[in-house]
């Protein structure tokens, strides 16, 4: 049987239209897709070569291993030559631009990650320092305008619809992870940006810029949560531009904070620190103590990863002082998450970072702060709860209380199974490693393996 279609696909196009295959594609059941390909004579080696996976990964998937990460699903669809729409995968604007330009050697998608980080930092610095954002030099993150005709005139009610949609989608992200709402955020953005072409008062226009900045920030955050780095950077870049047009320094700071968190997640504390420091400029200009507290806490986290205890102590002191002055009831939606529960989580994160360098000193401090946070988390913040439970469990084990670490860690796995986030398996890696160090403890070895299996089943 000829297993190479005319378009370069592993199979002829009619294979993708079979009933079983379409059902497997629609449900994103990669295991069944691969099994059906095997029935059509496609080898594991061919599947691996087409999708960029190892043969061992393909073998694990054939045995039932799940694939949930959006970017991996998209890579599999593209590698196999199946239309993304069959799997319910859609390009957002930035991704579509990159795909359209994929034959161009100068395409942004082909740039080294270091170059991309440098470009974004340069753009962030220009925006944060008040440079023009509508001139001739537009960032690589700019997407094409929506094609649907815009309303001829809009009022504040139209803007409030965007704000309500953003709030509802943000609540979903907090509770269940970016995988539950990212596509909806991107779709809402395509609609909302049409309003830029409508006539309105200056006051409405300013609020529109703010609302679009906030929605782009949420699109960036949910993209990051699903492991989609380039779309995340694209949305954050546009969020910065709209926030600066709106003259909203607090929102500029918040966008820079979120992009900094991306770099913290990928263990790039120096790049994260630069963005947090730029954000601190905007936060100070905003006059919002809560925004300043967020920036200080995250600067402390970056310094913790860099093993700078002097700066950590300074930043944590400032965080507590600014938080004590803050009025949560007056804070905008995008920073209101930083309540007392999240304050303890942030301080715990800083101590957790330091505990990697000095476990005897900082692991007990991390445990104390994360316990305070985990006692107050509710179902509306399940993803954060998973992260902080993982930190608490890890530091129990670092501090020598292995049994308690395992008990708390199992709670993290139970809740983590309900959250669609590519970050969950990444954030549980330290827990797996700490448990694995106790080679003479059978329960610890078993638990480490349990975490490993959980992470693998959710990380591809």
From TrEMBL:
InterPro entries: Cro/C1-type_HTH (IPR001387), Lambda_DNA-bd_dom_sf (IPR010982), TPR-like_helical_dom_sf (IPR011990). GO terms for molecular function: DNA binding. SUPFAM superfamilies: lambda repressor-like DNA-binding domains, TPR-like. Pfam families: HTH_3. Residues 33-87 form the HTH cro/C1-type domain. Transmembrane segments: none annotated. CDD domains: HTH_XRE. This is Transcriptional regulator.
């Amino acid at each position: 049987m000829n297993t190479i279609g005319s378009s370069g696909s592993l199979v002829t196009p009619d294979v993708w239209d079979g009933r079983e295959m379409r059902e497997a594609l629609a449900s994103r059941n990669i295991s069944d897709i691969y099994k059906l390909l095997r029935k059509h004579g496609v080898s594991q080696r061919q599947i691996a070569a087409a999708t960029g996976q190892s043969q061992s990964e393909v073998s694990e998937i054939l045995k039932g291993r799940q694939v949930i990460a959006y970017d991996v699903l998209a890579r599999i669809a593209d590698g196999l030559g199946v239309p993304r729409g069959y799997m319910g995968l859609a390009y957002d604007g930035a991704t579509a631009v990159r795909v359209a330009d994929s034959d161009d050697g100068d395409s942004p998608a082909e740039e080294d990650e270091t170059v991309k980080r440098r470009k974004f930092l340069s753009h962030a610095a220009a925006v944060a320092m008040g440079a023009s954002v509508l001139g001739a030099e537009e960032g690589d993150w700019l997407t094409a305008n929506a094609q649907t005709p815009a309303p001829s005139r809009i009022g504040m009610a139209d803007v409030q619809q965007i704000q309500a949609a953003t709030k509802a989608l943000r609540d979903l992200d907090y509770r269940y992870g970016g995988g539950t709402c990212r596509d909806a955020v991107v779709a809402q953005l395509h609609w909302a940006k049409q309003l830029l072409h409508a006539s309105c008062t200056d006051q409405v226009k300013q609020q529109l810029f703010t609302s679009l900045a906030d929605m782009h920030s949420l699109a960036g955050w949910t993209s990051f949560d699903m492991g989609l780095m380039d779309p995340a950077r694209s949305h954050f870049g546009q969020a910065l531009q709209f926030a600066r047009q709106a003259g909203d320094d607090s929102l500029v700071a918040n966008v820079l904070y979120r992009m900094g968190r991306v770099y913290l997640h990928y263990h790039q504390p120096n790049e994260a620190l630069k963005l947090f420091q730029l954000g601190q400029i905007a936060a100070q200009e905003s006059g919002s103590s809560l925004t300043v507290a967020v920036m200080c806490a995250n600067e402390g986290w970056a310094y913790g990863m860099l093993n700078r205890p002097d700066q950590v102590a300074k930043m944590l002191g400032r965080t507590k002082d600014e938080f004590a002055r803050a009025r949560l009831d007056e804070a905008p939606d995008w920073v209101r998450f930083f309540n007392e529960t999240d304050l303890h989580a942030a301080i715990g994160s800083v101590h957790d970072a330091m505990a990697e360098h000095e476990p005897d000193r900082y692991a007990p401090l991390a445990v104390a702060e994360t316990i305070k946070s985990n006692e107050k988390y509710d179902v509306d913040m399940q993803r954060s709860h998973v992260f902080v439970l993982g930190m608490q469990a890890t530091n129990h084990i670092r501090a020598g209380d292995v049994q308690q670490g395992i008990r708390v860690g199992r709670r993290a796995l139970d809740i983590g199974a309900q959250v669609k986030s590519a970050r969950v398996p990444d954030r549980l890696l330290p827990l797996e490693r700490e448990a694995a160090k106790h080679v003479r403890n059978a329960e610890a070895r078993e638990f480490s393996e349990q975490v490993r299996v959980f992470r693998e089943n959710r990380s591809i």
